[in-house]
Design brief:
By secondary structure, the protein is of the alpha+beta class. It has a 6-stranded antiparallel beta sheet with strand order 4-3-13-12-9-10, with no helix packed on it. The longest helix is centred in the first third of the chain and has 8 residues. The relative contact order is 0.09.
Amino acid sequence: MSPRDRSRSPQRSRRPRSSSSRSSWRHGRFDPSQSPPRRRHRVSPARYHHEDSSSPPRRRRRSQSPAHVRRRQSRSRSPGRQRDRRALPSQQDSYRSQQGGGSSNAVDKGPEKEKPNWKPTGILAAESNKVTVGSGSKAHDIVLKYHEPPEARKPPASEPWVIYVFKGDSKDPIHTVPLHSRTCWLLGRETAVADVPLEHPSCSKQHAVFQFRYTTKTNEYGDKKSKVGLYLLDLDSSNGTFMNDEKVTPSRYVQCLSGDIVKFADSEREYVVMLPPKE
């Protein structure tokens, strides 16, 4: 018997339903003694198989995964690459414990590495400051004790520095040296390399230097002022250099002002540094 025939059989009796009960439940007015109305569900005949039908019942198909997914799942995963946790070759010595019964936590420091030395050796300066004097078998090299710094500059044409050389009580200079034409002037007894020769035997072969330098100075208000000035440098001479009757510190630049008097060793000659006034 089909489900439709069963619903029509007289054995099953339905309870009469009144429209008033439905409306009372729908609008919120109901009697607690009455049971709520039942909804009627329609059953689709397609979901059931008739007994007199000769076709076999339908079966639900299972979803099948694609072939490449099944092959991926069937493959056995190889173990991943394990990380090597051993120390690097450069770290093995630092982590090696000391020999001779020390504690296991002790570290062998090994020999200390030599630290770099950035001090100038003077070899490069000596090679670049050589002057060859003579020719043939009499030729020989003279190593200059001084080389110009990076801040060496020529003075401007508006500042024609001059040195007047006086001897004894004479009022007239015996010699005049115009300094503004070059950046550096070497004084000494070595006439082969000296720009201004010194004749007194107490003076050194390379005694002192007059050097023009470009420097920047900052005043008390923070203003910067750059200028090319004249400086005197004693080259570690044996008997020293004097400015205005005071000995100059060797290997240190001393600024020269107009009217300063410079003397070298025990020489009686006076070198007066002058800057002529602007016209």
